[in-house]
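Before drawing any conclusions, I looked closely at one protein, both as residues and as discrete backbone shape codes, quoted below without any editing:
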Amino acid sequence: MRLFLAINLPSPVVAAIDHEAAALRAAAPALRWIPPAKWHLTVRFIGEQPLERLGAIRDAVDAATSRHPEAPLAIGGVGAFPNFRRARIVWIGVAPDPRLEMLHHDIESACVASGMEHEGRPFRPHVTIARVPPGVDEGQLRALSRAARAVRYSEVIDASSVDLMASELAPDGPRYRLLHSSPLAAAVRHQ
């Protein structure tokens, strides 16, 4: 199974971002816009794993999240990797926060301790909303950059869990399926 760990966004947040993204979609219709139901903050990509490893992965993530309070996610701003002129990914930003950074660090450590390779790239929290196919007209990218500057959406929410997700490849794009939710410590106390 192809797996990743994510913080899934609440439906009202997804709806608000989707509303703001309408201007972005109009500015650059040639991009591959990701359906809002698939928007999430990737905490860690795991990759292909045999089915028998699911229990160990779930236990490792449960142990890591149980030591952390709910993490604030300050969502807002639109950007592109590496930049709008050479964009490959368009994203909604998530501001760095020490609690989110520590959560990511402890999840990475738990994954490595359970036998996975160290991911080795910096954690840049974001929510991918579009992919840029090769050959997109530069005019659309300039229009997208202008539209991005006009987006004023911002919100702070508390992440209460890290979800183990399966990504199943299909002709119309990947399908995501929730396999397990690992609550953060404060969320456990509220139950």
Q: What stands out?
A: The first strand starts at residue 2 and ends at 8. The beta strands are 2-8, 32-33, 40-48, 71-81, 89-94, 126-131, 154-159, 161-168, 175-183. Residues 187-191 have pLDDT under 50 and may be disordered. The chain is about 35% helix and 35% strand.
